[in-house]
Design brief:
Keywords: Membrane, Transmembrane, Transmembrane helix. This protein has 543 residues and is an all-alpha fold. It has 23 helices and four strands.
Length: 543
């Protein structure tokens, strides 16, 4: 550790023998480490570039495309405000997640393990794993739709074939993950450019689009369900774990200036990435809303709009791509699904390492998640066909929204704690805004669950005894859901100092107090770097 004249650590690095907690999660000696010099320069921005864009891939995955298409087809521009609110909330929340990692040297899952008792940790881990599986379901179905459009393979067979996508991904890694990510991003942004170009043909009414963005409205329970799906597809719980961990792959100067610069550049990067994702989602909804609500649609297109899903959406791009619309949309959909698979694999690794201190090879981790996602997708696709598979994507996005509080509340609590964040603690204004966002999300979820459950009971053909029994069972589940959130909200945090408040002696004492977990305070985190897919660079350490 290098100490400045003020007694604060300039860089904190590992020394001595690795302990089990900080051992590499993937046996790979070629992990890339990006060193940020301790000087104030805009050139440093490019060293921080990466985590925000990798996280933003989840905002333009097949789940987003599906919910956007249905929102536009059914409610025209009426749900655009959900995209705007979700994007603004995502920027604030993702910035907080990045700040948590930079300032404390630990990612969100590790903080949860240190903060909560064992039972609560296991429950939070299970919820996080369910969220990752729910996020993988749209990737499975989106890939199956893409294979159907490209090769006319039945949807359920395509679902089975998605299990092989892991092997394809691993085969492509030999060319370098950065090249692979660039190719995927290029394909995804190609289809985004097509939707932007289609806006010129669709000519959505600008006043209606502005009203949709800035005049919140929910017309019935159907729109509420779609709004929840849009919210779940935009602000994903596993992204909070992912972003707080990805920032630990940089060697950040542990000085006040270095920390401030890292937080600022990560916020700028997240803002750029999420703005691009926001524009893509708005364009998809606008095209879908304009085309499907047009008065001069032919009978075939009207039928497609009534049950619009990823398998039928290519007709929206006929004006731009002509007869190639189906093939090119399928290729971009396939690329989108595979890029999201990368982020899902990373998030799964970080969640397991953080909550359980358990490490798996990435292909094993990916296959486990994919297998759990294939089972419900296969059953629904085999029994209900493409329409039911599309509905499953909406349900999966709703699950993500329901689970969001169990990642969001700990993040808000940790970043609002001065003992954890020091001078970088959330301001009173920011805390108020973020808690309002979290409360709004929870209120919408609870309203939808309660109203939907009551409607199900009222309109069911069960006898009175069965209704009473199901009512007690259902409302007990809702009470447990609320009790879990209340526990996270009202439980007091343990006292734990942030990195910049430590002198060399205090850091050593904390390491002794924390035992094997003491090294979790060290930066850079080589275990985080080596969890990522292989790079061809020799690691560097600072003396």
């Amino acid at each position: 550790m290098t100490i400045t004249g003020s007694g604060q650590p300039q860089f904190i690095t590992r020394t001595g023998t690795q302990n089990a907690s900080n051992a590499p999660l993937i046996e790979n000696s070629d992990a890339e480490q990006i060193v940020v010099p301790d000087n104030s320069s805009w050139k440093n921005f490019f060293r921080y570039l990466g985590p925000g864009f990798l996280v933003s891939i989840a905002y333009i995955d097949p789940g987003n495309f599906e919910t956007d298409l249905q929102a536009g087809a059914q409610y025209k521009y009426g749900l655009l405000w959900v995209i705007l609110v979700s994007s603004c909330a995502a920027l604030v929340i993702q910035t907080m997640a990045a700040n948590l990692g930079v300032i404390t040297g630990k990612h969100l899952a590790e903080h949860c393990r240190a903060e909560y008792p064992k039972v609560a940790n296991i429950i939070l881990w299970i919820i996080a794993e369910i969220a990752i599986v729910a996020c993988d379901i749209p990737e499975v179905i989106g890939t199956a739709f893409a294979l159907n459009m490209l090769f006319h393979i039945k949807i359920w067979i395509g679902v089975l074939l998605t299990g092989l996508s892991t092997l394809v991904l691993l085969a492509l890694q030999q060319y370098g993950i950065r090249k692979l990510e660039f190719l995927i991003a290029f394909l995804v942004f190609t289809i985004a450019a097509c939707f932007f170009a289609e806006l010129g043909y669709a000519k959505p009414d600008a006043k209606e689009v502005i009203d949709g963005l800035f005049m919140p409205q929910l017309k019935g329970s159907g729109s509420t369900g779609l709004a929840i799906s849009l919210l779940g597809a935009m602000v994903m719980p596993h992204n909070l774990f992912l972003h707080s961990a990805l920032v630990l792959s940089r060697k950040v100067p542990q000085s006040v200036r270095g920390i401030n610069e890292a937080c600022r550049f990560y916020m700028i990067e997240s803002a750029i990435a999420l703005t691009v994702a926001f524009l893509i989602n708005v364009s998809v909804i606008s095209v879908s809303g304009s085309v499907c609500n047009s008065s001069n649609l032919n009978a075939e297109d009207q039928k497609s709009c009534q049950n619009l899903d990823l398998n039928q959406a290519s007709f929206l791009l006929k004006n731009v791509l002509g007869k190639w619309s189906s093939k090119l949309f399928a290729v971009a959909l396939l690329a989108s699904g595979q890029s999201s698979t990368i982020t899902g694999t990373y998030a799964g690794q970080y969640v397991m390492q953080g909550f359980l201190d358990l490490r798996l090879k990435p292909w094993i981790r990916n296959m486990l998640t994919r297998s759990l996602a294939i089972v419900p997708s296969l059953i629904v696709a085999a029994i209900g066909g493409p329409n039911a598979a599309g509905e499953l994507i909406i349900i999966a996005s709703m699950i993500l929204s329901f689970e969001l509080p169990f990642a969001l509340v700990p993040l808000l609590k940790f970043t609002s704690s001065k003992t954890k964040m020091g001078t970088h603690v959330n301001s009173i204004m920011l805390s108020a805004v973020t808690w309002m966002i979290g409360s709004l999300i929870m209120a919408i979820n609870i309203y939808y669950i309660v109203s939907g459950f009551i409607k199900l009971l009222v309109h069911s053909h069960l006898n009175l005894v069965a209704k009473v029994f199901l009512g007690m069972l259902g409302f007990s589940g809702i009470a447990i859901y609320l009790a879990g959130i209340a526990y996270l909200v009202f439980r007091k945090n343990k006292k734990m100092s942030h990195l910049l408040s430590l002198t060399a002696l205090e850091n050593q004492q904390m390491g002794n107090e924390q035992g094997n977990n003491g090294s979790l305070y060290n930066l850079p985190r080589e275990d985080i770097v080596s969890m990522q897919l292989p790079q061809r660079t020799t690691p560097l350490d600072l003396d």
